[in-house]
Design a protein that fits this description.
The chain has one domain: Rossmann fold, CATH 3.40.50.620. It is built from 6 helices and 5 strands; from the N terminus they run βαβααβαβααβ. Helix 1 links the parallel strand 1 and strand 2.
């Protein structure tokens, strides 16, 4: 068996939906990044609401732009308070906020490929039955389609 000299996980992508499950998952991603002296990429997908002609009649472009900026600012502040503030002296990270009208796993997988990520870390919600059938599972789709290993963490709460 060949021994690798390089760290196993140089680029670790942590995906968050800003939920409690993601908060519980973050320490795993951070610990792995520290252990392997890797680069941590914190990713959040801001889902764009579908456009409709009816809404466009009442919401001006200025209002849509203001809502977009407020949403981006909210996400930035949440990531700062939930994750960055808990990193201590770890500084090898970047934050990527993606906006998409597609299901969140599409832009996550695209970014993982572009950044040549070695590991994706994300939490699961543990949906089953009809809830899973209706909403699907972002984690499951990422696991099935990612070109790199995926570590999923299920929150115990």
């Amino acid at each position: 068996m060949e021994v690798k000299e390089d760290p196993m996980f140089k680029k670790i992508m942590f995906c968050t939906d800003l939920s409690k499950n993601s908060d519980d998952t973050f320490p795993y991603a951070l610990d792995l990044a520290k252990k392997y002296q890797g680069h941590l990429i914190i990713v959040h997908v801001i889902e764009q609401p579908p456009q409709s002609g009816f809404v466009d009649l009442y919401v001006t472009e200025d209002i849509r732009e203001r809502i977009k900026k407020e949403r981006q600012e909210y996400v930035k502040n949440e990531i700062e308070s939930r994750y960055i503030s808990k990193m201590g002296n770890f500084t090898d990270y970047e934050v990527v906020s993606l906006e998409s009208s597609e299901a969140p796993y599409y832009p996550i997988l695209d970014l993982a490929k572009k950044k040549d990520v070695d590991l994706i870390v994300l939490g699961t919600h543990g949906r089953t039955g009809i809830e899973k059938a209706i909403f699907g599972s972002v984690a499951e789709r990422i696991c099935r389609r990612a070109a790199c290993p995926v570590l999923t963490i299920r929150s115990v709460n």
